[in-house]
Amino acid sequence: MTTKTTLILGAGFGGIITANALRRQLPSDHRIVLIDKLPTFHFGATKPWVMLGHKTVAEISHSREALGRRGIEFLQAEIRQIDLAKGEVETEHGSRRGDYLVIALGADYDMSAIPGLAAAHEFYTLEGAARLREALREFSRGDLIVLVPRAPFKCPPAPYEAAMLMDHAFKERDVRDNVRIALYTVEGAPMATAGAEMGSFIREQLAARGISFHPTKKTSSVDGEQRSVKFDDGSEAHFDLLVTVPPHVAPKAVREAGLTNQSGWIPADPKTLKVARESAFRAVYAIGDVSVVPLPGRHKPDVPLVLPKAGTVADGQGQIVASQIAGEVLGRPAETFAGVGTCYIETGGKQAVRGEGQFYALPHPVMRTTPPDGAQYEGKLTWMSDWLRANL
Ligand SMILES: Cc1cc2nc3c(=O)[nH]c(=O)nc-3n(C[C@H](O)[C@H](O)[C@H](O)COP(=O)(O)OP(=O)(O)OC[C@H]3O[C@@H](n4cnc5c(N)ncnc54)[C@H](O)[C@@H]3O)c2cc1C
Question: Whose CA is nearest to atom 17 of ligand 1?
Answer without folding.
Answer: 44
